[in-house]
Amino acid sequence: MPAYSAPTVSNADRRAYALRKLFSLTGVLPIGVFLVAHLGTYSTALLGRDAFERALGAGRSPYGLVLEVALLWLPLAFHAGYGIKVLFEGRSNASRYPWARNWSYALQRLSAVVVLVFIGAHLLQFRIPLLTGELDHDDLFYELCASLSSTTAWGVPWVALGYLFGLAATAYHFANGLSGLCFSWGIATGRRGLARVHAVTGLFGVALFAMGANSIIYFSTGSRFALSAAGHEPATPPLSCRHAAAEDVAGDAEPGAALTGAPAAKVAFGAR
Amino acid sequence: MTERTSEPQSPAPQATKQLVGLRVLRQEGTEGTRKRWERFEVEVGPAATVADALSALERAPRTIDGKRVAPVAWEGDCLEGACGGCAMRVNGKVALACTTLVAPLARKKPVVLEPLSRFATLTDLIVDRSPLFNALAQVEAATHVPERALGSVPAEHEAPLERLAGCMGCGACAEACPQYGPHSDFLGAAALGHAHRLNESPAGALQKSRRLDVLMTPGGIADCGKAQNCVEVCPAGVPLIDALTTLSRQTSLRFLFRWLGQ
Amino acid sequence: MASLSERGRVRRSVVIGAGASGLMTAVSLCRAGIPVLLASRSSPYGAGSARLRAGFNAAKPEDVAAHAARSAELGAGLGDPLRARLLSESAIGHAAWLAYCGVPFDRDPDGALRRTRLYSAPTEWTLTAGARTGHHVVAVLESLARRLEATDLPRADGASGERLLRRLTAWELVDLVVDDHRIVVGVVLRNTRNFEHRSFPADGVCLASGDHAALFAGSTANLGADGSGVAVAYAAGAALADPELLQFTALAVRCAEKSIALPESLLARGARLISVENDAAERRSSEGQSPAKERAELATAQSLLAPSELARRGAEGGPRRALSLDLSDVPDDALEDALPPQLHALMDAHVRSGRRLPVEVSVHASLGGLLTDLACDDGKADRASARNQSTTLGGLYAAGGAACHGCGAEELPGNELPYRLQSATLAALGIAAYRDAMEQSAYDLPGSLFDKAAERREAEFRASLGDGEDDDPGAARLFEKLRTAMRRACGPKREADSIIEALNDLATLAEAASAARAASPHEAVSLERLRRVLPIARATLGAAERRSHSVGGHFRADAVERKEALRHSFVVAGENGDYSLSNEVRYQCAGQPVTLDSRVESR
Ligand SMILES: Cc1cc2nc3c(=O)[nH]c(=O)nc-3n(C[C@H](O)[C@H](O)[C@H](O)COP(=O)(O)OP(=O)(O)OC[C@H]3O[C@@H](n4cnc5c(N)ncnc54)[C@H](O)[C@@H]3O)c2cc1C
Ligand code: HEM
Ligand code: HEM
Ligand code: SF4
Ligand code: F3S
Ligand code: FES
Fold first, then answer.
1. Which atom of ligand 4 lies nearest, measured to the CA of B132?
2. Quick check: C522 and B82 CB within 8 A?
3. Counting atoms of ligand 1 from 1, which one is nearest the CA of C263?
4. What is the spatial distance between Cα C47 and Cα C247, in angstroms, rounded to a whole number?
5. To which H or E segment does residue C381 belong?
6. What is the ipTM of this complex?
7. What is the pTM of this model?
8. Across chain C, what does the average pLDDT equal?
9. What span, in angstroms and rounded, lies between the C-alpha atoms of C104 and A182?
């Protein structure tokens, strides 16, 4: 039978596929894991300043800048860079074919851009000053409270809202990314399997957002939704926050202070 | 034998004919020379499809301002949703002209007809779908020609495989896919569906590993963005997502254990 | 645009039409090592074969004889018993081969190929692949062809880089290149996209361009089944056989441009054919008429079903009783597959009157076509002869719908796919034998022969272009007139004077067509096609007029007692679109003279 000329696979093709898989993996490990851990550390603020200091400290010492760059910054830069390439390969048509999955395709890409901007701003606000020494680790708590509860125009806490928005985009991007990951690795096959995965990752995304939002809102307004909802502690800021204010060490920032201009006990919005 | 009216007499009271407005994008040649919109009005019955409206237009090619024009060029062989020739954009969304009832669409505004946007337009509503079929050659959606049927034929051909083989090359999945088009070298869901079908058939399975390798090259399975529009618009009901997810699994496993292993 | 003939060093055979038969012919030729050029107007999915729903008859060995007998019996005397036997004997081999290649035939739980009993068959011998058997056969044949397109020719025979199979889609056969011995040595093709004309030499040409059922208004055939391929051979002198014999279907739902054939399997799933007098009866029956009357209606309707009886009953005088198919008891999954989407929408529009669809008797396919020979010695087919599937033009072969099926007045439902594969394998064998017996290859002939043929067609095409006057009827309207005239005169019910009236209509139509000018290249293509198929329509009417007795589903209201022997209708093209019927045809095949007699017993 005459020779059959089958299509061949070059090494360049194999590398391209490997990169695509790496892009997918980096979204979960290390970036996704860092995100969960990171939000976890910042929600310890709700348990009071010393719990927060301890969590922050625990996360600090063994890292070292080199490890941080290798394990977090490089993967993030690679994922973001490759993600931008992937962005340009698609022409979203969600308005014309408004099915749910098509919207999640479009929002995955939109959220990616929002996350890119958010991380950029976020690093400029905290990470870079910490590196350059402009900001000291000990004042981190106050800096967070100050900036998140700061209200520039019309009494609206823009920074907090910005953080919530950035957090929402990140949580959605990560959750939807996990669902996409189950598709592109064939962890779930068929439409029923994918629907289940999408539900689970959706819940995970909401939970992640709630955790992050809780701490942002706490820094911003001083009220702790989750815990007050749990009802086992009055909704006043933890002693350490007030105590810090009394000692008047570096600035009088305490959760919600700038927002209300009065002792943190009174909450600007949201009835007690 | 009584002369048939052009519409089937529905046993219900004699249905009335109505005027339907059409707004068709016209052009000649791939460079899009003389690209222009033309407005028509055609008389059709309640059961008429967009294809019937286009055929009626061919018999009276006159715009609403009475100018006689060349009949609108469109393609379609079967007129019952089985050949895919008449896939076009109806009011912006991909549809088969021959299975889309026209009256419900034309109540308020004229129906807008445009050629598929993901392929080169040849004339009016006719596009060059050859990239779709070339992609089949690329994924080696080809079956080795066996001399004769070798022994008893395995029995695992259940309904899914029958559905899986329903593709007629209409291009709707390519039209609705955000990843397909001039801006990317993605082969499209149809070609991947074919590759998967062949991997599952006895004669086709002989080249399964080679086909998976080909699917792992640029433009293959990794370029699917998981938007899942393809399975929604496919007129033949091809279970494309089953194919795409199974291929994703098979290629990922192959990547982990074969490629990295070498 | 300079039209040029494309030589190439590889001595290819040419196959026209990529339906089931064209693809099978090409695959069979390539398996015998013969390089092929396969040119087709539509993609395989646009071919009529892709819409076959009745299934694939492949009887178990013990039922093969019964299957052959039943097929021949339906032909009402005009069928060829040898072809019926060849078909039933080869069917199971083809089916197993197709299943191995990937056709998802339905299976019994133990994995054996599941056979069902079609409504009009005495026993189970029909294989099905879901509700789209034809589609799956065509899809698998196409994937085989794609493999051959990527197969390099062995170095010694062909140049480097030449492939075993070369495929051209959206190219249409417009002329045959004939040498001075009246042997077909090449084809002229027109690109239906950029309207370029090009000629190709060919060592053996096989026409598999489908039948001419689309010439009848309201037929269920694809629009492409207009006989435009057969017309090219007919114009070059090839004889037609029984063009007037048509396959009807009783379950056709008339939509504007054509009808949709509902599959017979619906009747096995609870669908009931109801004959309703008029609207009044309809309203009364929907309010629940007495069961006795309902059963009586059903009995008449169901006895009508077998196409031959139905055509006769449907064609009888008396108040034309509209038929309606009641689908209320059909399970939804069966309905889902059986009806194309727009019929679902149509049914929603009819939901008020219970799930009923108006059905009528419609032309389904044409059983006649190019006269093709079958070499046999003492009752068995001689598979090595160049006469197999040869038309009366040397070097030109035909398979599938383009050829006369040889099944006579009616084809057993479900025989169509095995017939296509059978006629395709025979045509491939015929061409292989023809090529062996050939002294001179078409590729050795002077290039000017091919250039001139292509240039003539190009010039003709250009001449029909022009800015048509405002009142010019246009090709579409002329085609509609042709199809309406053919349906009225040559449907299930025929009589001499209505046929003659239609012949006159077609004569005036031919004049209008030659005077018409096309407003665009696309319209010029359909205008040229109309001019080309008009002689086929007139030949069909001529043969229908001469066959003055009823046979199978063809009912002659003015039938006369048949005195002399039963004959096939051999039709040869006369001057300017006229036709001449003859009882004997002589032709040259691979050097030997052959004489074919139209008497049925001559086989
Ligand atoms: C709705 C329907 C149901 C049917 N059901 C059955 C059934 O169940 N079983 C059955 O056996 N038969 C059935 N028939 C009849 C059968 O489909 C046709 O007779 C059959 O299509 C003929 O097959 P073919 O391969 O010879 O040609 P086709 O399958 O029609 O293919 C012809 C090909 O040639 C191309 N072509 C045509 N003219 C030219 C030209 N001039 N140049 C180049 N290419 C050309 C066409 O584009 C097409 O691709 C049915 C027909 C219809 C319409
Ligand atoms: C906290 C930061 C981020 C996390 C946790 C994250 C996580 C993920 C995950 C898990 C995926 C799924 C991969 C797949 O579908 O196979 C993904 C996909 C994607 N990411 Fe990110 N990512 C982050 C930041 C970014 C950034 C900054 C970009 C920049 C553009 C980006 C662009 C993309 C894109 C475009 C996809 C879609 C890939 C596809 O659907 O095929 N991501 N991300
Ligand atoms: C709940 C809201 C958040 C708060 C209060 C917060 C706070 C901080 C702080 C204070 C730092 C610097 C501390 C340090 O250097 O260790 C930091 C670093 C960082 N944050 Fe956030 N962050 C939040 C949400 C996010 C989100 C949603 C992302 C999304 C990707 C993110 C990504 C990062 C990264 C990448 C760093 C730099 C790495 C590092 O320093 O460890 N943060 N964050
Ligand atoms: S998969 Fe479906 S939508 Fe895509 S080309 Fe095939 S039939 Fe059309
Ligand atoms: S629409 Fe396109 S992105 Fe993938 S899931 Fe379907 S091929
Ligand atoms: S014409 Fe065949 S699908 Fe519409």
1. 5
2. no
3. 8
4. 18
5. strand C380-381
6. 0.86
7. 0.88
8. 85
9. 30
Return the closest-CA partner of residue C202 out of C183, C228, C229.
C183
Q: Contact A2/C150, CB-based, under 8 Å?
A: no
Of chain B residues 52-111, which have a CB less than 8 A from chain C?
52, 55-56, 58-61, 68-71, 73, 76-85, 96, 98-101
Residue to substitute in C416, C532, C533 for testing ligand 1 pocket (most ligand atoms within 8 angstroms of CB): C416
pLDDT per residue as tens digits for the range B164-216: 889 999 999 999 999 999 888 899 999 999 999 888 877 778 789 888 999 99
Q: Which pLDDT score, from 0 to 100, does residue B88 have?
A: 98
Terminal Cα distance for chain B, rounded: 75
Q: Which residues of A touch C153 (CB under 8 A)?
A: 2
State the nearest Cα–Cα gap between C400 and chain A, in angstroms: 27
From residue B209, alpha-carbon distances to A183, B167, B188, B254, B259 in Å are 21, 22, 20, 9, 12
Neighbour tally for C384: CB within 10 Å: 12
Q: B186, B132 in Cβ contact below 8 A?
A: no
| Å from CA of B131 to ligand 5 middle | 17
Q: How confident is the model at residue A252 (pLDDT cuts 50, 70, 90)?
A: very low
In this structure, what is the dihedral angle of CA atoms A256, A261, A266, A270, given to the nearest 10 degrees?
-60
Which pLDDT score, from 0 to 100, does residue A259 have?
54
Chain C contacts of B197, Cβ < 8 Å?
Answer: 102
Residues of chain B positioned with their CB less than 8 A from the CB of A96: 92-93
Provide mean pLDDT across the span C402-425.
Answer: 93
Hey, whose CA ends up nearest to atom 22 of ligand 2?
A27
The CB of A92 under 6 Å from ligand 2? The reply is no
The pLDDT score that the predictor gives to residue C155 is 65
| Chain C: closest CA distance from residue A98 (Å) | 22
pLDDT at position C277 over 90: no
Q: Which of B196, B194, B191, B195 is nearest to B177 (CA)?
A: B191
Higher pLDDT, residue C9 or A204: A204
Q: Which residue from B minimizes the CA distance to A105? A: B227
Give the CA angle between residues C439, C443, C447 to the nearest 5°: 130
Residues B201, A113: contact at Cβ < 8 Å? no
A32 C-beta closer than 6 A to ligand 2: yes
The better pLDDT of the pair C377, A116 is held by A116
* Tens-place pLDDT, residues C552-577: 778 887 888 887 788 899 999 998 88
pLDDT reading at A73 higher than 50: yes
Query: Please, what is the Cα angle at A100 between A98 and A104, to 5 degrees?
Result: 105
| C461 CA: distance to closest CA in chain A (Å) | 40
Question: Over the stretch A131-147, which tens digit does the pLDDT of each residue have?
Answer: 888 888 777 788 888 88
Q: In chain B, positions 212-241, which contact chain C (CB-CB < 8 Å)?
A: 235
User: Which residues from chain A sit within 8 angstroms of residue C164, using beta carbons?
Assistant: 2
Cβ distance of C102 and B143 shorter than 8 Å: yes
Cα–Cα distance, B129 to B125 (Å, whole number) = 12
Percentage of chain C beyond pLDDT 70 is 87
Write the pLDDT tens digit of every residue in C120-129: 677 789 999 9
Burial class of residue A121 (count of CB atoms within 10 Å of its CB; 0-12, 13-18, 19+): middle
